[in-house]
Amino acid sequence: MECTIRWHDGMSFIAETGSGHLVAMDGAPEAGGRNLAPRPMEMVLAGTGACTAFDVVLILKRSRQDITDCEARLIAERAESDPKVFTKINFHFVVTGRGLKPETVERAIKLSAEKYCSASIMLGKTAEITHTWEVVEG
């Protein structure tokens, strides 16, 4: 896996991923940025949320659950001083489907958290990570 980051303008940067996709990032105005794109740490959080949601959907599909939607909302706290690492992260999942078994949803989230999601396992080295979820019929 590889990624190239290029300084664009001011405090804006463009990342080009190994798969050929471009992602813009920018700093906060107080840091010289123009607030044109997400902050790098927001990208870390978003990537972690996508990593775990991907796992949950895949595990539920392989468990033959009739899943129709999955949303993961991450709320994080960071250290007050540098390095401002994440110190707490709550993952809240809303999983929608027909006849979903709550215990299967819980198992999928647990497997992602403990075995499959490299990003959340890595962030768990500095942050207290918690998970909540709800199952919606539909």
TrEMBL record:
Q: Which InterPro entries match?
A: KH_dom-like_a/b, OsmC/Ohr_fam, OsmC/Ohrsf
Protein's UniProt name: Protein YhfA
Species name: Georgfuchsia toluolica
Organism ancestry? Bacteria, Pseudomonadati, Pseudomonadota, Betaproteobacteria, Nitrosomonadales
Gene designation per UniProt: yhfA
